[in-house]
């Protein structure tokens, strides 16, 4: 397996695992892959997105079918009990926005995927929100790295979470304005 294939395999594995149980996000690996081969930034983002969404589906399955064993272990291991309890309330308010927000921001996506299964969130809504949220995140990172390159690498890595939260805040504000106007 060549270096580029090995990198894609690692990105696949990390993206999948991070969505259901692994604590390290795939963004740094995506950044490294785009830096190594900027012309393939769309491919790298697509691989991370597809793998992450597949991992999210696995997380959903863990919540739906295996929460008593695997899901509870993940929640306890990462000390996410309080956050898990809050997720049910957020799902009642707007499940799609909750999944999208977690998929795009540094909110632990694995918590959202497992909770989606536990709280029986409509699977199609979960899947669509995951695709859009994870896709927006990974394509944004890949796009920034491709267009801004090495010169801004450290700044992008340092502030990607802030940019993500700002984007979601603006998105929520937009939804609120539409709802109340």
Provide a descriptive summary of the structure in words.
Helices cover 83% and strands 0% of the residues. By secondary structure, the chain is an all-alpha fold. The protein has one domain (3-180). Helix 3 (41-65) packs parallel to helix 6. The relative contact order is 0.14.
Sequence-ordered SSE layout with sheet pairings:
Layout: H1 3-18, H2 27-36, H3 41-65, H4 67-77, H5 81-104, H6 109-118, H7 123-148, H8 153-180
Summarize model confidence as the mean pLDDT. 81
Low-confidence stretches are: none
- Tally the beta strands: 0
* Percentage of residues assigned to helices: over 70%
Domains (count): 1
Beginning-to-end CA distance, first to last residue:
56 Å
Supply Rg.
Answer: 16 Å
Structural class: mainly alpha
Spell out the helices and strands N to C.
HHHHHHHH
Entry summary:
With 181 residues, the protein is an all-alpha fold. The chain has one domain (3-180). Helix content is 83%, strand content 0%.
Which terms summarize this structure?
181 residues; mainly alpha; 0% strand
